[in-house]
Structures are given as C-alpha cells and as structure tokens.
Amino acid sequence: MKHYKLNFTLSTKVRGNSDYVKKNHIKIPNEKMFWEEPKFIGSIRNEKIDFQPYLLDIELFPNSNVNDLIMDGGPISTKLIISGKLKSIIEEYRKSGMQFFNINILKKNEVFSDYWILNMYEFNQEFIDFSKCKIIYQEKEADFEVSYLINEKVVFISNQDEFYALIKKARIKDEIIWIEKLELNNVNEDFFILKYVNGGVGYFVSETLKQEIEDAGCTGIEFQPVELSYNEWTAPGGEREQVYGQYF
C-alpha cells in the first residue's frame, strides 16, 4: 500500500495568500517568553501530556482561507492544527498515542472554535526500512581552524541501531542527519508520525486514509508520496504540480 506525508498546501489560491497566519496569541499567564515556559504546548516535543498545557489562538489574515489543516510553524512547529472534521476522520483510523487540545482560529471578527492541536507522542520508527532509505549526513569540515565548510553526503545504513548510532555521533559534533527519501515496511497503522525525516517530524497516512480525507472534502492538505524527496515532489513541472497545480 502507498503512503503519503501530510503537507500544508503550497497553493496561494487554497491558502488565500502567501503569508496565511497573521499572529499567534499565546496564553501564558506570566511574563515568560513561550520558549521559556515548559508547560506551553509548543515546548512539549511529542511527549504525552498529563496536565493542562498553555495554549494559543491563531489569527489568520483577513484574506486567508480557513482550511481543515492550518499551517503549523513558529511556536508550535512540530504540531498539526486541524479542524474537528479532520480530527474525527483521523480518530477513526488511529486509537493510540494521540492527544487533542481545543483552540480557536480567529479571522476578522469571526471565531472558529472547532479546531485542535494534535500532540502525537507515539512514534513508529519501526516502520522504516533503513537499508533502502536515502539518508543525508551534513557534516562539518574545518576551514583554517576558524570556520567550517558544510559537506552533504549520502550514507548507507543497514538498520535502526546503526542509524541511531550515527544520530549520536552527529549530535556530539553538532552535525545533522535526516532521511531524504523514505522506504516503509510492515506498516500496520493508517496514521503515524516519524522523526528524523526531511523537516524534522512528519505525519503520514495510508492510501486508504488519504482517500477518506479527500472524499470528505478536507482542504489545505497536499499528500506527498513517501518515495519522493521534497525537492523531487516540488520540482517545477513535477508530480506535485501535476496533482495540485502551480504555487501561485
């Protein structure tokens, strides 16, 4: 079965504009900045939450469209913001490892209250066939012992243990490793989250769930086939453009 990464739409027609989010109204009841507050929802990195976190409202520009998937980023960059309709569909296909926190989407004088931040805390790295993935290692090379040159190379990994050993090495040297192109194996979930993919964290759906979401008319979503890198997917004249049209 095919699988797809959920992406927020690149189409300005579907977004309504290129900027989309006007302001995040963060609800922290003190003078801390959001990155200093461990109970802020954006500070919690895919761990189960057993308390009431500090949330936020998201204000869109007046000409932005209110889609079922709202662009993430900024203070909540690892989370999805979804409509109640999309939430209900996802809940039919996944029963564990998820929490939803209700927030408001604001636009002009309107308040859209049936929106949710998804906190997903169960990763399924075991679905990755590391031996068949394209993995990029971005290493530093000393340049006159003052600055560094960045060198990207493809590395070959046999299994998950080798991959995490390389992750440990990269962290020590302040280098970066990520999975550029995915190969999946023995997937038994229709909706799941993976880390160390292009962009850091990615949310993925099966062909079955993709069809359900499309049939429901959910907006703001583009489905990137996992076998394509992001650059391949977004290349001018490439598959994304054939499916969803040009950006503008």
Provide an overview of this structure.
This is Immunity MXAN-0049 protein domain-containing protein. With 248 residues, the protein is α+β, with helices and mostly antiparallel strands. It has helices at residues 12-15, 84-93, 160-172, 207-215, 230-234, 239-244, and strands at residues 3-8, 21-26, 56-60, 69-70, 80-83, 98-107, 110-120, 134-143, 147-155, 176-181, 191-197, 200-206, 221-225. A six-stranded mixed beta sheet has the order 2-3-6-7-5-4. The chain has a four-stranded antiparallel beta sheet with strand order 11-12-1-13. Strands 9-8-10 form a three-stranded antiparallel beta sheet. The two termini are 32 Å apart. The model has no long low-confidence stretch (mean pLDDT 92).
Distance between the termini: 32 Å
Query: How many domains make up the coordinates?
Result: 2
Question: Unreliable stretches, pLDDT < 50, 5 or more residues?
Answer: none
Mean pLDDT: 92
Q: Taking strands numbered 1, 2, ... along the chain, how are they ordered across the largest sheet?
A: 2-3-6-7-5-4
Order of SSEs:
EHEEEEHEEEEHEEEHEHH
What would the principal axes of the Cα set say about the shape?
Answer: globular
Main β sheet profile: 6 strands, mixed
What percent of residues adopt helix (DSSP H or I)?
10-25%
What structural category characterises the helix and strand content?
Answer: alpha+beta
Q: Helical region count?
A: 6
Radius of gyration: 19 Å
Count of extended strands: 13
Measured by DSSP, the beta-strand proportion falls in 35-45%
Protein name: Immunity MXAN-0049 protein domain-containing protein
InterPro entries: Imm11
Domain Immunity MXAN-0049 protein: 39-162
